[in-house]
Specification:
Elements lengths: L6 H31 L4 H27 L4 H20 L13 H18 L3 H26 L6 H19 L1 H13 L9 H18 L4
């Protein structure tokens, strides 16, 4: 898990870091500006961007991790830099207004949970247990937000979004982990509907799905 990364892994981590920076600081800023010119409210443009970042950074990078890395170390460094980079604007009171909001730091939760569960996948020597909860959180929740934002034009919780999330997460979970993965996908799609104060869906979605994929095989669920 913590073995010395190869030169190729360091290069891959640098490329992925550049991609994340490009999406968050350049691409989404341009999308924000275009949406505002077309009459979209600020909050709608911001919420779209947050979900675009979920999918294009968290989701895409998660899929690439098993293909590119044998060591978790470069990923841990990448996660730490990104978490600090997203936390500092909140501390300084100068947020990246095209995707951050002053009322919460949920994007920081997203980065930390992404790194935590990816690390658990490496530690358990089963990257599916790390990647799949992250995919549910990144792409599944991203789809949920895009559907809700399209329908309601604001950040809200609606079962229409959860149905869309389930339509993605359940078959993906079934394909990757079998029945236990499908149940985990369903559980993630349901728990996303609920928030408990500062414990948002970036925490509950990967946590519940990970626990289900660990516990269900012990109970004989394939």
């Amino acid at each position: 898990m913590w073995e010395t990364p190869t030169l190729n892994e360091i290069i891959y981590a640098g490329i992925l870091f550049g991609w994340v920076v490009f999406v968050t600081l350049f691409l989404c800023r341009k999308i924000y500006e275009v949406m505002l010119r077309r009459g979209a409210p600020h909050n709608v443009a911001v919420y779209y961007n947050r979900k675009i970042i979920h999918i294009l950074t968290g989701g895409l990078v998660a899929v690439l991790v098993p293909l590119l890395f044998n060591s978790y170390l470069p990923i841990a460094v990448l996660v730490a830099v990104l978490a600090i980079g997203n936390l500092l604007p909140h501390i300084r009171g100068k947020i990246y207004h095209w995707y951050q909001v002053p009322e919460n730091m949920f994007e920081v939760h997203f980065i930390i949970m992404w790194g935590l569960f990816m690390g658990l996948g490496f530690y358990l020597n089963n990257l599916s247990l790390g990647v799949l909860p992250v995919i549910f959180m990144s792409v599944g929740d991203g789809i949920t937000g895009l559907v809700r934002n399209t329908i309601y034009k604001r950040r809200t919780k609606s079962w229409w979004g959860n149905i869309a999330m389930g339509a993605f997460c359940i078959p993906v979970g079934l394909f990757v982990m079998g029945l236990s993965g499908a149940i985990a996908g369903a559980g993630a799609s349901i728990v996303e509907k609920f928030e408990l104060g500062k414990i948002d869906d970036n925490i509950t979605v990967p946590l519940l799905s990970f626990l289900l994929m660990v516990i269900l095989p012990w109970l004989g669920v394939p």
